[in-house]
Structures are given as C-alpha cells and as structure tokens.
C-alpha cells in the first residue's frame, strides 16, 4: 500500500526504511529537505492515491496540532491520519473530533523501539475504530516485530497513546531499579567488578531484560559511567502517567518515585541518573550530558 509519512527524524526515518523493506510505498516529508521525498505536505497528499493514509511522527503538542490542522485542509473524506508520536491521549480525542467533522478518520499509535526498531521491529499500541485501523493494518504489520506479539489494537481513540504512556511509566521504574542497584554495587568495597555482575544477570535470572542488556552495553562503553553527568530528562509521559493515576485513584508508588528521582537529578550529580541517562541513550538515542557540558 501507499503511505504518507510526516517527520523523518531518528524514528521516522528508520520506520520509512522498514516499511519500504516490506514492499510498501512510502512518501516522506520532513522540514529537512536532505531527507524528504517531497517539498511540502500539499505535494505529499497530491502524490497519494485515495483513500489516503498519512502517518504523523512529529513532536507532541504544537507541532502535531499544526500538522493535523494542515492535513485536515488537504485530505478528503475516507482518508485516515495516524498520530504515531508521543501525544497525550486527551489530544487524540480532540484530533479525532476535529478530523471527524470532515469525515477523515483518526488512529493514535504508541510506538516503542527507539533506534533499534529498524532491525528488531516496533512495538505498536493503537486506538481507533475497526474500520480506520483496518486501513492502516498493512503498515502495522510491516512495522511490528516478527512473531505473534508486539502489536495490539488497544481500544478506542486515545487507547494507543494511553497504553504507551503506561509502558513508559513502567520503563521509568525499571530503569530506576537497575540504577539504584548499580549505585549500591559501586559503593561497596567487596564487589570489585560491577560490570561483570550486571553481565552475569543477563542469563538465568528473573531480572534479565533488554534494558539490562543495554545497561551492560553502556558499562562496556564507560565502565563506571565517569564520562556522564548524573542528569536525566523526563519526556513528559512519566508525569502524565502519575497524573492519570491521581485522576483514577490508582496507587503508583514505584513509578511516581522514579519520576521524582529524575527531578532530584537536576539538583546534583546523581550516580543513579548516570545509569538512567546511559540507558535512555542506548535504547532511544536520547542526548546525554557529559561532565564538561555542565
């Protein structure tokens, strides 16, 4: 099938390549002309045959809103817009209504996989009507990992991004646990090779995971994380997860504490946040701060 893809950054560019490898046609637009296939959204829409599917992979908030506003003026009834960025689920409900006035469908899709998704596939959580999801299904199938898992129609509009938000909240807590354990191991005199302790956990233990593998990768690059400043940003989804928990009276002590720990990293050079920063860089290519940048 044909797909219009808006936003060809670290994830969007790799997603374009994976979809093309599956035999589909992708026409990509980005503000950077060096990576774009067309020069404008108008040209992108004009090259697609109806019913069109346009996937948006731009930063959440104003950038997503302006892109959807522009697409609403260019697309036709029966077309579908997919928001694959990290938008808040409440924005999805708003976008669905705005596009629905013009009989344009809307699907929200939480995407996980970071810089590794091109080869490994992307975990996908999407929300929308059965009819609109069906129009995008070949692209979901191309992006997902091989096998029976890694892709889910989570529910109605907003469900995809809500599920991805909870996923990221869990990710916060898991990274925090690894970081705390690493700091404690580094602190005591009796443990002389912390990196190899982490490596030993990769097989046969109940805490083995892809995040643990990435922690070992980071320690192979910088054994004591001495090159990093103990600072880790938060993308916003951790905050949204805690806010949703408050709204629904659901206790989230581990996720909430991990979010607050990131706030603490902005006050001093936290050893734990060196590991968090290293893990975020490993799985998502997120920027890190070296000590010389402070």
TrEMBL record:
<comment type="similarity">
    <text>Belongs to the HIBADH-related family.</text>
</comment>
<dbReference type="GO" id="GO:0004616">
    <property type="term" value="F:phosphogluconate dehydrogenase (decarboxylating) activity"/>
</dbReference>
<protein>
    <submittedName>
        <fullName>Decarboxylating 6-phosphogluconate dehydrogenase</fullName>
        <ecNumber>1.1.1.343</ecNumber>
    </submittedName>
</protein>
<dbReference type="GO" id="GO:0050661">
    <property type="term" value="F:NADP binding"/>
</dbReference>
<dbReference type="InterPro" id="IPR006184">
    <property type="entry name" value="6PGdom_BS"/>
</dbReference>
<dbReference type="InterPro" id="IPR013328">
    <property type="entry name" value="6PGD_dom2"/>
</dbReference>
<dbReference type="InterPro" id="IPR008927">
    <property type="entry name" value="6-PGluconate_DH-like_C_sf"/>
</dbReference>
<dbReference type="InterPro" id="IPR006115">
    <property type="entry name" value="6PGDH_NADP-bd"/>
</dbReference>
<keyword id="KW-0311">Gluconate utilization</keyword>
<feature type="domain" description="6-phosphogluconate dehydrogenase C-terminal">
    <location>
        <begin position="160"/>
        <end position="294"/>
    </location>
</feature>
<feature type="active site">
    <location>
        <position position="164"/>
    </location>
</feature>
<dbReference type="GO" id="GO:0006098">
    <property type="term" value="P:pentose-phosphate shunt"/>
</dbReference>
<keyword id="KW-0560">Oxidoreductase</keyword>
<comment type="similarity">
    <text>Belongs to the 6-phosphogluconate dehydrogenase family.</text>
</comment>
<dbReference type="InterPro" id="IPR004849">
    <property type="entry name" value="6DGDH_YqeC"/>
</dbReference>
<dbReference type="GO" id="GO:0019521">
    <property type="term" value="P:D-gluconate metabolic process"/>
</dbReference>
<dbReference type="InterPro" id="IPR036291">
    <property type="entry name" value="NAD(P)-bd_dom_sf"/>
</dbReference>
<dbReference type="InterPro" id="IPR015815">
    <property type="entry name" value="HIBADH-related"/>
</dbReference>
<dbReference type="InterPro" id="IPR006114">
    <property type="entry name" value="6PGDH_C"/>
</dbReference>
<dbReference type="Pfam" id="PF00393">
    <property type="entry name" value="6PGD"/>
</dbReference>
<dbReference type="Pfam" id="PF03446">
    <property type="entry name" value="NAD_binding_2"/>
</dbReference>
<dbReference type="InterPro" id="IPR006183">
    <property type="entry name" value="Pgluconate_DH"/>
</dbReference>
